[in-house]
Amino acid sequence: MRTGETYLSILDNVYSAAERLKNICVRTPLAVNNNLSTVYNAKISFKREDLQRVRSYKIRGAYNKMATMSQEELSRGVVCASAGNHAQGVAFACNSMKVKGTIFMPLPTPGQKLEQVKMFGGNDIEVILFGDTFDEAKDAAMRFCKEKDGMFIHPFDDPAIIEGQATTALEILEQAEESIDYLFVPIGGGGLAAGICSVFQELSPQTKIIGVEPSAAASMKKALENGKPILLEKISRFVDGAAVQQVGNLNFELCKNVLHDMATVEEGLVCETILSLYNKDAIVVEPAGALSVAALEKYKDLIQGKNVVCIISGSNNDITRMEEIKEKALLHANLKHYFLVRFPQRPGALKSFVMEVLGQNDDITFFEYTQKNSKEKGIAVVGIALKQKEDFTPLIDNMKKHDFFVNYLNNDPSLMNLLI
Fold first, then answer.
1. What is the CA angle 252-256-262, rounded to 5?
2. CA 114 from chain center: how many Å?
3. Cα–Cα distance between 245 and 229 in angstroms, integer?
4. Which of 24, 92, 282, 398 is deepest in the core (most CB within 10 A)?
5. To the nearest 10°, the Cα dihedral for 31, 36, 42, 44?
6. How far apart are CA 240 and CA 38, in angstroms?
7. What is the pTM of this model?
């Protein structure tokens, strides 16, 4: 993927990377998912990069990059910025090669990913927490490189990184028993997608490659719409493995004419997918790892009868996030609703609410109320879980009928801060 190279020589680089990684990376399975195959009347297979040694595909690019560097470069120490998975790949490579590494990570990085980085890197790495986003951590890492003359290992916008990630594509094509019609690939900065596109354009050009991003951090979609990478002013960090404000320049160039389509997925649907994969298939994924599967519903008509592959990119999920994941999933499914409710300050007001407003299967799951002596009526925040989404209209009608309703909170962006 050097400037001026042909796709043939790019493939040569990818084959070389595969040989380099042969005893480093796990050859992860390409496994048919019977549950989703039945749901979508298609052959749905998962490329299980969540089963890698660092529980994501990122080890491929990080190790390949460092393995192609000179001893002089490595002796200066390597520096990287990452929301978690690239950091683990670099940490693993540092420990394996006995190279000093400095890793910058955003302050909100899930604790599980932070601990994994320290575990894989051991005494060969130092972790520095900086900024709220990957991009802020990256800027700090770049400044550090200039000050200390370190070697920056970019998480996605680098030929050797892309060539390492592209070995995933080689494995998929080697493992597939028949031609692949659709391939769904998660996109953050675009390193994996660029590698996939480069290999499939040459070896399986008939495959339709669908890029998938979180709707609140859709940097590749924005780049394609504008014909160049664009810095998003604001993104959500929830899908941390794909929360990138701007895709890489090289990644964009390699993807722009090969991606068949781009799909964006709401965070609530990502959460539904995480829970479904765990409950039905005992597969643990992080939010970014669920993106490719979450997008299937949008293409259900097109993929019927087709051979479809979804890349499960990682499984580094912090157990402390599960309450938020469950909450977002229920909100997305319209099975959880929050209200400001007006209660008369008299005995029996709550009983009246339960008897006259709630349906037979409705359940109060959250209740926060402060009595104020100077007021005839007090305001409470009430969360109600429904058995089916059709129960919502009768619920809100009853609230208004009996003068309990004040406001509906589900669309309030600060709701999660109140609850979690």
1. 100
2. 16
3. 10
4. 92
5. -30
6. 30
7. 0.89
Listed residue (351, 342, 333) closest to 407, CA to CA: 342
The DSSP H or E segment spanning 78 is strand 78-81
- Among 47, 58, 208, 222, the active-site one is 58
Q: Which of 313, 315, 328, 336 is catalytic?
A: 313
Between the alpha carbon of residue 358 and those of residues 239, 350, 378, 396, the distances in Å are 35, 11, 19, 9
212 and 295 Cβ atoms separated by less than 8 Å: yes
Active site residue 65: no
Interatomic CA distance for residues 284 and 314, integer angstroms: 9
Write out the two tokens for 106.
């955003």
d(CA 172, CA 81): 28
Residues in CB range of 82: below 8 A, 6 or more apart: 58, 88, 90, 103, 104, 105, 134, 137, 155
Strand-pair partners of 213? 264
Does 394 have pLDDT greater than 80? yes
Per-residue b or e along 77-95, where b marks 16 or more CB atoms closer than 10 Å to that residue's CB:
bbbbbbbbbbbbbbbbbbb
**What number of CA atoms fall less than 13 Å from residue 238's CA on the CB side?**
23
Residue 202 CB contacts under 8 Å (≥ 6 apart), including other chains: 7, 8, 10, 11
Determine the residue type at 62: A
Amino acid at 229: P
For 407, list phi and psi in degrees, rounded to 5.
Answer: -160, 155
Q: Is 352 labeled as catalytic in the residue annotation?
A: no
